[in-house]
User: What shape does this take?
Amino acid sequence: MSTPLNQQPITHLEQQQILVAAATGDTFWHRVRFHLVDQAATRGGADTVLDIGAGSGQLGDWLVVQGRSLTYRFEETSPVLDEALAAHFGADHRSEMTAPIPATTLVTMLDVLEHIEEDIAALSTINARMAPGGQLLLTVPSFQWAFTSWDTSLGHHRRYSKRQVKALATSAGFELSSSAYLFPELLPLVAVRKLRRTEREHADFPSLPRFIDRAAELFSRGTTAVRRIWPAGTSVVALLTKPAAP
Assistant: This one.
């Protein structure tokens, strides 16, 4: 892909998100996480989902396809992706990054924090915008020992354990409502990534035959349903709540 002289080259992360926005980017891994968003919004009585670090906006598309009545709003710091999101969903669905966030809005950060160098400061800033009782659902890649060139290609600064997520949430002023490991069945793939030490030209998701993708979704939704029993997985999911003022 050529780049105009006055424009910064597209990053691996932006490239990945552009690919994910295409039909071939729709994978079981994404949909399993989106189901968790839907469940958290339903249980919390949310009427809006604010997708911080929205990337391709695939969560918004999924909510529409599922017929959910939730309002989808997005925030994205990448100019390339922000422009695409505004063109796709409408600029009125863009949220200002300093705007207050009501308690009826579920905030999501799906695999975003690992891209931010100052993660505590980023979460603290979001906490300051949220009304008491508001909730934030986040997912992050797990375990620093699993860090590979795949993480480097995507601009990850770190990976997390459940204990680290709890400490992070507390430092940022949240209460940890729940946390768990996801995708224990994908742990063998970590070994494959560890063996491949060369830098990758692309950091996209593998394209799977449709029947395998659907079967993997059913299996992963099964392991996710009993996620609290797993001692490990390739991701951590956590639900954070902003406590009421004392």
